[in-house]
Amino acid sequence: MRRIAPVLAILALLTLSACYKPKSEGKPLGSADNPLVMAFVPSTEAQKVLDSGDQLAAMLTERTGLHIKTLMASSYEGIVAAMGVGKVHVAWLPPMAYLFAHQRNGDRAALEVVRHGKPTYRGQIVVLADSPMHNVADLKGKRVAFAEQASASGHLYPRTLMLENGVDPERDLSGFTFAGSHDGALIALLKGSTDAACCFDDARTKLSESSFPDIMQKTRVLAYTPDIPADNVTLAAALSPELSTKITNALLAIAGDTQGKEVLMDLYEVEGLVPAADSDYDPVRKMAELLHLNIEEEAKKLK
């Protein structure tokens, strides 16, 4: 198992075949001369993701006999492009990036990640404990802090929930901001610069364990969003059924192993893996349609 350096790795992969005839030509995929490539984006500590990704690749090699390289990419857009030309075969993607990969290449969801015991999560709208607001419609005329523009739980799903309850953020709020993070939205609420904060369920826990120990007493949840499908392991459309089955079964076995659980937790705080289907991501498609979102453009915003 070898690692592809993160700097300009995607560019190198996409241009390699244009420079010279690769020695992998005619070699079976998964062989030493034509290894499978598994890609990640460092949404947490880059070195931690690198190390965990390498360990996971080694475990996959041990269970399947396939040679696997790990790739650290700077963007999900780059990973999707590389999958489309056969330079990446396995990728760990968030929902919007997956929809882009499926739409552009026909790539398919194989496994969904499990966190907090479920392969789904949800967003929430939080207000101060003594707020006069009691339902989503009460947000009319108020100020709202979203987490980040591309965040499903901290913006897109809460925004959809508002629209479904007759509140158009553009027209009916007195103003809204993007705080830059889930913590930032909650801190804006606590400091009085907004009337409501949108974040994942329950982002308050982290703050209660650090600088805001009384946040649970000072705030309450006004509303929860519907369930949001979690990140997934996506397989390239061109990957054969035999290789797809090998990789999927091996990852499931690793997720059930003690050492494997530790590696997945270090990688992306993953507790487990369950089989996934493309239809699991239909709620995200419906949300994008309601908000008139361009899936490709939204995927490009992801970090």
Structural description of this entry:
The protein is an alpha/beta fold and 303 residues long. It contains 13 helices and 14 strands. It has helices at 9-19, 46-64, 76-84, 95-105, 152-164, 169-172, 182-190, 204-208, 215-218, 241-255, 258-268, 282-290, 295-301, and strands spanning 2-4, 36-40, 68-72, 90-93, 108-114, 120-121, 123-128, 143-146, 175-178, 196-200, 219-224, 228-229, 232-235, 272-275. The strands form 3 sheets. Strands 1-3-2-4-13-5-14 form a 7-stranded mixed sheet, sandwiched between helices. Helix 2 packs antiparallel against helix 11.
Q: What's the helix-strand series?
A: EHEHEHEHEEEEHHEHEHHEEEHHEHH
Shape: elongated
Overall residue-averaged pLDDT value:
91
The quaternary structure here is single chain
How many strands, which pairing sense, and closed or not: the largest β-sheet?
A: 7 strands, mixed
Derived from helix and strand composition plus strand pairing, the structural class reads alpha/beta
Give the name of the CATH architecture of the largest domain.
3-Layer(aba) Sandwich
Main CATH class of the largest domain: Alpha Beta
Strand order of the largest sheet: 1-3-2-4-13-5-14
Percent helix range: 40-55%
Strand content: 15-25%
CATH fold group of the largest domain:
D-Maltodextrin-Binding Protein, domain 2
Q: Could you name the ranges where pLDDT drops below 50 across 5 or more consecutive residues? A: 5-21
Number of domains: 2
Number of helices: 13
Instruction: Measure the end-to-end span.
Output: 26 Å
Q: What's the name of the CATH homologous superfamily of the largest domain?
A: Periplasmic binding protein-like II
